[in-house]
Amino acid sequence: MMVKIRATLAALTVTLTCVSFSLGEVAKQAAGTDYLVVEAETFINDEDLNDEFTGFTILSSEPAEYDLEGGGLIELPQPWFDASGGQAILDQAGGGDFADKIYWETEFAEAGTYYLYFRYSLFDMRGLIDNTYGNEDSFYIPFNSFDEDPAGDSDEIRTDRIGFSALSSMGATPENGCRDIEADPFDNESLYLPIEDCEGDGLRTELHWEGQYHWAPARFNFTGENAQYDIEDTGVVLDYQIASRERGSSLDVMVFSMDPNLTAEDLDALVGIGVVDPGVAGDFNNSGARDVGDLDLLAAAMASGDVSFDLTGDGAVNFDDRAFWVESLANTFIGDANFDGQFNSSDFVAVFGAAKYETNAPATWAEGDWNGDGVFSSGDFVAAFGGAGYEKGPRDGGLQVVPEPTSSLLIISGLLAFALRRRA
Fold this sequence. Notes:
Layout: E1 13-16, E2 19-22, E3 27-28, E4 35-39, E5 56-60, E6 64-67, E7 73-76, E8 87-91, E9 101-107, E10 112-122, E11 138-140, H1 155-158, E12 164-166, E13 178-179, H2 188-191, E14 192-193, E15 214-217, E16 228-231, E17 237-244, E18 249-257, H3 264-271, H4 292-304, H5 319-329, H6 345-353, H7 378-386, H8 407-423
Parallel strand pairs: 3-9
Antiparallel strand pairs: 1-2, 4-18, 5-8, 6-7, 8-18, 9-17, 10-15, 10-16, 10-18, 11-12, 11-17, 13-14
Helix pairs in contact: 4-5, 5-8
Protein backbone atom coordinates (compact mmCIF):
# COMPACT_ATOMS: atom_id res chain seq x y z
CA MET A 1 0.00 0.00 0.00
CA MET A 2 1.44 3.35 -1.00
CA VAL A 3 1.67 5.98 1.69
CA LYS A 4 -0.25 9.17 1.03
CA ILE A 5 2.03 12.13 0.42
CA ARG A 6 1.68 14.85 3.03
CA ALA A 7 3.20 18.33 3.14
CA THR A 8 5.53 18.83 6.10
CA LEU A 9 7.97 21.48 7.22
CA ALA A 10 10.93 19.25 6.51
CA ALA A 11 13.70 20.85 4.47
CA LEU A 12 13.02 19.13 1.18
CA THR A 13 15.18 20.46 -1.63
CA VAL A 14 14.17 20.65 -5.28
CA THR A 15 16.66 21.42 -8.02
CA LEU A 16 15.50 23.25 -11.13
CA THR A 17 18.33 23.74 -13.63
CA CYS A 18 20.78 25.94 -11.68
CA VAL A 19 18.28 27.22 -9.10
CA SER A 20 17.61 25.44 -5.80
CA PHE A 21 14.33 25.72 -3.90
CA SER A 22 13.57 24.33 -0.45
CA LEU A 23 10.21 23.82 1.21
CA GLY A 24 9.44 26.91 3.26
CA GLU A 25 12.33 29.10 2.13
CA VAL A 26 11.99 32.76 1.10
CA ALA A 27 11.65 33.28 -2.67
CA LYS A 28 13.91 36.23 -3.48
CA GLN A 29 13.97 38.38 -6.58
CA ALA A 30 17.40 39.06 -8.05
CA ALA A 31 18.28 42.76 -8.13
CA GLY A 32 17.88 44.33 -11.57
CA THR A 33 15.35 41.78 -12.81
CA ASP A 34 11.64 42.38 -13.41
CA TYR A 35 10.25 39.04 -12.24
CA LEU A 36 10.09 36.69 -9.26
CA VAL A 37 9.70 32.91 -9.60
CA VAL A 38 7.94 30.98 -6.83
CA GLU A 39 7.91 27.18 -6.94
CA ALA A 40 4.52 26.14 -5.55
CA GLU A 41 5.88 23.28 -3.43
CA THR A 42 7.95 25.73 -1.34
CA PHE A 43 4.86 26.89 0.55
CA ILE A 44 4.73 27.43 4.30
CA ASN A 45 2.49 24.79 5.87
CA ASP A 46 0.82 26.04 9.05
CA GLU A 47 -1.14 23.10 10.48
CA ASP A 48 -3.63 25.53 12.03
CA LEU A 49 -4.49 26.82 8.55
CA ASN A 50 -4.10 23.76 6.33
CA ASP A 51 -5.51 20.31 7.09
CA GLU A 52 -3.05 17.58 6.10
CA PHE A 53 -5.82 15.20 5.02
CA THR A 54 -8.12 17.55 3.06
CA GLY A 55 -6.04 20.64 2.32
CA PHE A 56 -3.06 21.42 0.12
CA THR A 57 -0.36 18.77 -0.26
CA ILE A 58 2.65 18.08 -2.45
CA LEU A 59 2.42 15.91 -5.55
CA SER A 60 5.68 14.27 -6.59
CA SER A 61 6.62 12.01 -9.47
CA GLU A 62 6.22 9.04 -7.07
CA PRO A 63 2.53 8.07 -7.33
CA ALA A 64 0.43 7.95 -4.16
CA GLU A 65 -3.18 7.38 -3.14
CA TYR A 66 -5.59 10.31 -2.82
CA ASP A 67 -9.21 10.42 -1.75
CA LEU A 68 -11.89 11.09 -4.32
CA GLU A 69 -14.75 13.44 -3.49
CA GLY A 70 -17.65 11.28 -2.34
CA GLY A 71 -15.52 8.21 -1.61
CA GLY A 72 -12.96 6.01 -3.31
CA LEU A 73 -9.32 6.51 -4.18
CA ILE A 74 -7.26 7.56 -7.17
CA GLU A 75 -3.55 7.15 -7.85
CA LEU A 76 -1.80 10.40 -8.74
CA PRO A 77 0.07 11.64 -10.61
CA GLN A 78 -0.10 9.86 -13.97
CA PRO A 79 3.10 8.77 -15.77
CA TRP A 80 3.13 11.90 -17.95
CA PHE A 81 3.30 14.26 -14.94
CA ASP A 82 5.60 17.11 -16.03
CA ALA A 83 5.81 19.52 -13.08
CA SER A 84 9.07 21.46 -12.97
CA GLY A 85 11.47 19.87 -10.53
CA GLY A 86 9.13 16.87 -10.31
CA GLN A 87 6.82 18.47 -7.71
CA ALA A 88 3.64 20.57 -7.56
CA ILE A 89 0.84 21.20 -5.08
CA LEU A 90 -2.66 19.69 -5.07
CA ASP A 91 -5.80 20.82 -3.27
CA GLN A 92 -7.15 17.51 -1.97
CA ALA A 93 -10.77 16.39 -1.82
CA GLY A 94 -12.67 17.17 1.36
CA GLY A 95 -11.84 20.81 2.00
CA GLY A 96 -13.91 23.46 0.29
CA ASP A 97 -14.58 27.18 0.44
CA PHE A 98 -11.91 28.96 2.52
CA ALA A 99 -11.30 25.76 4.51
CA ASP A 100 -7.55 25.61 3.97
CA LYS A 101 -4.87 28.20 3.37
CA ILE A 102 -1.15 28.19 2.58
CA TYR A 103 1.34 30.96 1.98
CA TRP A 104 4.75 31.71 0.53
CA GLU A 105 7.40 34.07 1.85
CA THR A 106 8.68 36.38 -0.89
CA GLU A 107 11.13 39.24 -1.11
CA PHE A 108 11.12 41.74 -3.98
CA ALA A 109 14.19 43.71 -4.98
CA GLU A 110 12.45 46.08 -7.42
CA ALA A 111 9.32 48.16 -6.81
CA GLY A 112 6.62 48.20 -9.47
CA THR A 113 3.40 46.60 -10.74
CA TYR A 114 3.63 42.85 -11.04
CA TYR A 115 1.33 40.55 -13.02
CA LEU A 116 0.75 36.99 -11.80
CA TYR A 117 1.11 33.91 -14.01
CA PHE A 118 0.22 30.35 -13.01
CA ARG A 119 1.64 27.07 -14.32
CA TYR A 120 -1.23 24.75 -13.46
CA SER A 121 -3.08 21.51 -14.07
CA LEU A 122 -6.41 20.00 -13.01
CA PHE A 123 -7.27 16.56 -11.63
CA ASP A 124 -10.75 15.05 -11.81
CA MET A 125 -11.60 14.27 -8.18
CA ARG A 126 -15.35 13.73 -8.68
CA GLY A 127 -15.84 11.52 -11.75
CA LEU A 128 -18.61 13.58 -13.33
CA ILE A 129 -19.11 13.52 -17.10
CA ASP A 130 -19.32 17.27 -17.43
CA ASN A 131 -16.19 17.88 -19.53
CA THR A 132 -15.67 21.26 -17.89
CA TYR A 133 -13.61 20.53 -14.75
CA GLY A 134 -15.88 23.11 -13.18
CA ASN A 135 -15.67 21.36 -9.83
CA GLU A 136 -11.90 20.91 -9.75
CA ASP A 137 -10.53 24.21 -10.87
CA SER A 138 -10.27 27.10 -8.46
CA PHE A 139 -8.56 28.89 -5.59
CA TYR A 140 -9.07 32.17 -3.81
CA ILE A 141 -6.19 34.62 -4.30
CA PRO A 142 -5.60 38.17 -2.99
CA PHE A 143 -7.64 40.76 -4.89
CA ASN A 144 -6.92 44.22 -3.40
CA SER A 145 -3.27 43.88 -2.44
CA PHE A 146 -0.41 41.40 -2.54
CA ASP A 147 -0.52 40.60 1.17
CA GLU A 148 -4.33 40.47 1.53
CA ASP A 149 -5.81 37.45 3.31
CA PRO A 150 -7.88 35.68 0.58
CA ALA A 151 -9.93 33.99 3.32
CA GLY A 152 -10.57 37.16 5.33
CA ASP A 153 -13.79 38.00 7.14
CA SER A 154 -15.03 40.90 4.99
CA ASP A 155 -18.26 40.64 2.99
CA GLU A 156 -16.28 41.52 -0.13
CA ILE A 157 -14.15 38.39 0.32
CA ARG A 158 -16.66 35.95 1.85
CA THR A 159 -19.91 36.98 0.17
CA ASP A 160 -18.84 38.63 -3.07
CA ARG A 161 -15.93 36.18 -3.46
CA ILE A 162 -13.79 38.74 -5.23
CA GLY A 163 -10.68 36.55 -5.03
CA PHE A 164 -12.28 33.63 -6.92
CA SER A 165 -9.85 32.51 -9.63
CA ALA A 166 -10.82 29.51 -11.81
CA LEU A 167 -8.05 27.65 -13.59
CA SER A 168 -10.44 26.13 -16.14
CA SER A 169 -11.24 29.59 -17.50
CA MET A 170 -7.60 30.26 -18.33
CA GLY A 171 -7.44 28.33 -21.59
CA ALA A 172 -6.04 24.80 -21.05
CA THR A 173 -8.25 22.09 -19.60
CA PRO A 174 -7.23 18.40 -19.66
CA GLU A 175 -7.30 17.05 -23.20
CA ASN A 176 -4.98 14.28 -24.39
CA GLY A 177 -6.90 11.07 -23.74
CA CYS A 178 -10.05 10.19 -21.87
CA ARG A 179 -11.11 8.45 -18.68
CA ASP A 180 -13.51 5.57 -18.16
CA ILE A 181 -15.14 6.81 -14.97
CA GLU A 182 -16.45 3.35 -14.09
CA ALA A 183 -12.99 1.74 -14.17
CA ASP A 184 -10.88 0.80 -11.18
CA PRO A 185 -8.90 3.99 -10.33
CA PHE A 186 -5.67 1.95 -10.09
CA ASP A 187 -6.13 0.06 -13.35
CA ASN A 188 -4.37 2.29 -15.88
CA GLU A 189 -5.09 -0.21 -18.65
CA SER A 190 -8.78 0.67 -18.61
CA LEU A 191 -8.82 3.97 -16.73
CA TYR A 192 -7.05 6.10 -19.36
CA LEU A 193 -7.78 5.51 -23.02
CA PRO A 194 -6.32 6.90 -26.28
CA ILE A 195 -8.37 9.53 -28.10
CA GLU A 196 -9.57 7.12 -30.80
CA ASP A 197 -11.34 5.10 -28.09
CA CYS A 198 -12.92 8.11 -26.39
CA GLU A 199 -16.54 7.67 -27.45
CA GLY A 200 -19.52 6.11 -25.74
CA ASP A 201 -21.26 6.10 -22.40
CA GLY A 202 -19.14 6.47 -19.30
CA LEU A 203 -16.19 8.04 -21.10
CA ARG A 204 -14.97 11.61 -21.09
CA THR A 205 -15.14 12.83 -24.65
CA GLU A 206 -12.42 15.46 -24.29
CA LEU A 207 -8.76 14.78 -24.65
CA HIS A 208 -7.22 14.44 -21.18
CA TRP A 209 -4.23 16.42 -19.87
CA GLU A 210 -4.34 15.69 -16.16
CA GLY A 211 -0.84 16.05 -14.75
CA GLN A 212 0.50 18.11 -17.64
CA TYR A 213 1.02 21.75 -16.69
CA HIS A 214 0.25 24.89 -18.68
CA TRP A 215 0.84 28.62 -18.33
CA ALA A 216 -1.82 31.31 -18.11
CA PRO A 217 -2.23 34.74 -16.49
CA ALA A 218 -4.05 34.40 -13.16
CA ARG A 219 -7.52 35.85 -13.65
CA PHE A 220 -10.35 36.94 -11.36
CA ASN A 221 -13.59 35.30 -12.47
CA PHE A 222 -16.05 38.01 -11.50
CA THR A 223 -14.15 40.94 -13.01
CA GLY A 224 -12.39 39.15 -15.88
CA GLU A 225 -9.21 41.04 -14.97
CA ASN A 226 -5.77 39.51 -14.70
CA ALA A 227 -4.26 39.57 -11.21
CA GLN A 228 -1.78 42.40 -10.66
CA TYR A 229 -0.17 43.81 -7.55
CA ASP A 230 1.64 47.05 -6.76
CA ILE A 231 4.83 46.27 -4.84
CA GLU A 232 6.33 49.18 -2.91
CA ASP A 233 8.18 47.42 -0.08
CA THR A 234 11.48 45.92 -1.24
CA GLY A 235 14.09 44.02 0.71
CA VAL A 236 11.50 42.78 3.22
CA VAL A 237 9.60 39.51 3.47
CA LEU A 238 6.01 39.65 2.18
CA ASP A 239 3.54 36.77 2.50
CA TYR A 240 1.46 35.71 -0.50
CA GLN A 241 -1.50 33.48 0.36
CA ILE A 242 -4.06 31.33 -1.44
CA ALA A 243 -7.15 29.67 0.03
CA SER A 244 -8.96 26.52 -1.08
CA ARG A 245 -12.18 26.55 -3.05
CA GLU A 246 -12.45 23.25 -4.96
CA ARG A 247 -10.61 19.96 -4.91
CA GLY A 248 -8.31 18.82 -7.73
CA SER A 249 -6.70 22.19 -8.48
CA SER A 250 -2.92 22.02 -8.87
CA LEU A 251 -0.17 24.63 -9.10
CA ASP A 252 3.39 24.01 -10.24
CA VAL A 253 4.94 27.50 -10.44
CA MET A 254 3.90 31.14 -9.95
CA VAL A 255 5.68 33.98 -11.72
CA PHE A 256 5.22 37.62 -10.72
CA SER A 257 6.41 39.79 -13.61
CA MET A 258 6.28 43.47 -14.57
CA ASP A 259 5.54 42.34 -18.13
CA PRO A 260 1.79 41.74 -18.68
CA ASN A 261 2.31 40.06 -22.05
CA LEU A 262 4.55 37.07 -21.38
CA THR A 263 4.04 33.99 -23.54
CA ALA A 264 4.35 30.38 -22.39
CA GLU A 265 7.75 30.27 -24.08
CA ASP A 266 8.85 33.40 -22.21
CA LEU A 267 7.72 31.91 -18.90
CA ASP A 268 9.41 28.57 -19.59
CA ALA A 269 12.64 30.46 -20.20
CA LEU A 270 12.34 32.43 -16.94
CA VAL A 271 11.78 29.27 -14.92
CA GLY A 272 14.19 27.06 -16.86
CA ILE A 273 11.60 24.59 -18.13
CA GLY A 274 12.79 22.82 -21.27
CA VAL A 275 16.34 24.04 -20.72
CA VAL A 276 18.45 20.93 -20.49
CA ASP A 277 21.59 21.29 -18.43
CA PRO A 278 24.35 20.08 -20.79
CA GLY A 279 25.67 18.11 -17.83
CA VAL A 280 22.41 16.12 -17.67
CA ALA A 281 21.43 15.78 -21.31
CA GLY A 282 18.10 14.04 -21.78
CA ASP A 283 16.80 14.99 -18.33
CA PHE A 284 13.43 16.09 -19.68
CA ASN A 285 11.58 15.92 -16.35
CA ASN A 286 14.19 18.10 -14.60
CA SER A 287 14.82 15.49 -11.91
CA GLY A 288 18.57 16.10 -11.97
CA ALA A 289 19.31 12.68 -13.48
CA ARG A 290 18.31 10.52 -16.43
CA ASP A 291 15.50 8.11 -15.53
CA VAL A 292 12.70 6.19 -17.24
CA GLY A 293 10.37 9.13 -16.73
CA ASP A 294 12.42 10.96 -19.35
CA LEU A 295 11.82 8.13 -21.81
CA ASP A 296 8.07 8.31 -21.21
CA LEU A 297 8.11 12.05 -21.93
CA LEU A 298 10.18 11.37 -25.04
CA ALA A 299 7.57 8.83 -26.21
CA ALA A 300 4.86 11.47 -25.79
CA ALA A 301 6.99 13.91 -27.80
CA MET A 302 7.39 11.32 -30.56
CA ALA A 303 3.61 11.04 -30.75
CA SER A 304 3.06 14.80 -30.80
CA GLY A 305 6.08 15.69 -32.98
CA ASP A 306 7.57 18.03 -30.36
CA VAL A 307 10.99 18.76 -31.87
CA SER A 308 12.25 20.32 -28.65
CA PHE A 309 13.02 16.69 -27.72
CA ASP A 310 15.26 16.25 -30.79
CA LEU A 311 18.53 14.85 -29.44
CA THR A 312 20.19 13.91 -32.72
CA GLY A 313 19.94 17.32 -34.39
CA ASP A 314 18.06 16.11 -37.46
CA GLY A 315 15.02 18.35 -36.91
CA ALA A 316 12.72 15.46 -36.01
CA VAL A 317 11.87 13.48 -32.89
CA ASN A 318 11.65 9.74 -33.49
CA PHE A 319 13.16 6.38 -32.54
CA ASP A 320 16.65 7.62 -33.38
CA ASP A 321 16.36 10.08 -30.48
CA ARG A 322 15.16 7.30 -28.22
CA ALA A 323 18.04 5.04 -29.20
CA PHE A 324 20.51 7.88 -28.70
CA TRP A 325 19.12 8.59 -25.21
CA VAL A 326 19.33 4.91 -24.23
CA GLU A 327 22.60 3.91 -25.85
CA SER A 328 24.74 7.06 -25.94
CA LEU A 329 23.49 9.05 -22.94
CA ALA A 330 22.32 6.42 -20.43
CA ASN A 331 24.83 3.84 -21.75
CA THR A 332 22.40 0.95 -21.60
CA PHE A 333 20.28 -1.06 -24.04
CA ILE A 334 16.87 -0.87 -25.65
CA GLY A 335 14.97 -3.42 -23.57
CA ASP A 336 16.47 -2.47 -20.19
CA ALA A 337 13.01 -2.12 -18.64
CA ASN A 338 14.17 -1.99 -15.01
CA PHE A 339 16.92 0.48 -15.92
CA ASP A 340 19.77 -1.37 -14.23
CA GLY A 341 22.20 -1.03 -17.15
CA GLN A 342 21.60 -4.49 -18.60
CA PHE A 343 19.13 -6.21 -20.92
CA ASN A 344 18.37 -9.65 -19.56
CA SER A 345 15.62 -11.97 -18.35
CA SER A 346 14.81 -9.75 -15.36
CA ASP A 347 13.50 -7.16 -17.82
CA PHE A 348 11.07 -9.71 -19.26
CA VAL A 349 9.85 -10.53 -15.77
CA ALA A 350 9.19 -6.82 -15.20
CA VAL A 351 7.32 -6.11 -18.43
CA PHE A 352 5.23 -9.27 -18.51
CA GLY A 353 4.31 -8.63 -14.90
CA ALA A 354 2.57 -5.47 -16.11
CA ALA A 355 0.39 -7.67 -18.38
CA LYS A 356 0.15 -5.19 -21.25
CA TYR A 357 1.65 -7.23 -24.09
CA GLU A 358 -0.48 -7.00 -27.22
CA THR A 359 -3.41 -5.50 -25.29
CA ASN A 360 -3.07 -2.09 -26.99
CA ALA A 361 -3.21 -0.53 -23.52
CA PRO A 362 -1.00 2.52 -22.98
CA ALA A 363 2.41 1.38 -21.73
CA THR A 364 5.49 3.06 -20.32
CA TRP A 365 9.13 2.14 -20.84
CA ALA A 366 9.03 0.04 -17.64
CA GLU A 367 5.94 -1.74 -18.97
CA GLY A 368 7.48 -2.72 -22.32
CA ASP A 369 7.16 0.30 -24.59
CA TRP A 370 10.75 0.28 -25.77
CA ASN A 371 10.24 1.65 -29.29
CA GLY A 372 8.23 4.66 -28.08
CA ASP A 373 4.93 4.02 -29.84
CA GLY A 374 3.00 4.02 -26.55
CA VAL A 375 2.11 0.31 -26.38
CA PHE A 376 3.87 -3.00 -25.65
CA SER A 377 3.87 -5.20 -28.74
CA SER A 378 6.10 -7.35 -30.93
CA GLY A 379 7.61 -4.18 -32.34
CA ASP A 380 9.29 -3.59 -29.00
CA PHE A 381 11.07 -6.94 -29.20
CA VAL A 382 12.26 -6.08 -32.72
CA ALA A 383 13.72 -2.83 -31.38
CA ALA A 384 15.29 -4.49 -28.34
CA PHE A 385 16.91 -7.46 -30.05
CA GLY A 386 18.08 -5.18 -32.84
CA GLY A 387 20.45 -3.66 -30.31
CA ALA A 388 22.18 -7.04 -29.79
CA GLY A 389 22.56 -6.47 -26.07
CA TYR A 390 20.58 -9.35 -24.61
CA GLU A 391 22.49 -11.11 -21.80
CA LYS A 392 25.70 -9.24 -22.74
CA GLY A 393 25.97 -7.59 -19.33
CA PRO A 394 26.41 -3.83 -18.84
CA ARG A 395 28.18 -1.62 -21.34
CA ASP A 396 31.67 -0.41 -20.51
CA GLY A 397 31.38 2.36 -17.95
CA GLY A 398 28.01 1.13 -16.67
CA LEU A 399 24.68 2.93 -16.51
CA GLN A 400 25.03 6.73 -16.81
CA VAL A 401 22.18 8.49 -15.02
CA VAL A 402 24.31 11.57 -14.35
CA PRO A 403 27.29 12.57 -16.48
CA GLU A 404 30.93 12.05 -15.77
CA PRO A 405 33.04 15.25 -15.45
CA THR A 406 34.01 15.01 -19.11
CA SER A 407 30.39 14.51 -20.18
CA SER A 408 30.22 17.22 -22.82
CA LEU A 409 33.02 15.61 -24.79
CA LEU A 410 31.47 12.18 -24.36
CA ILE A 411 28.07 13.44 -25.51
CA ILE A 412 29.50 15.10 -28.61
CA SER A 413 31.53 11.99 -29.43
CA GLY A 414 28.53 9.78 -28.86
CA LEU A 415 26.33 11.92 -31.08
CA LEU A 416 28.86 11.76 -33.92
CA ALA A 417 29.25 8.00 -33.56
CA PHE A 418 25.50 7.53 -33.45
CA ALA A 419 24.96 9.63 -36.56
CA LEU A 420 27.63 7.73 -38.49
CA ARG A 421 26.19 4.36 -37.40
CA ARG A 422 22.66 5.38 -38.48
CA ARG A 423 23.91 6.44 -41.92
CA ALA A 424 25.81 3.21 -42.43
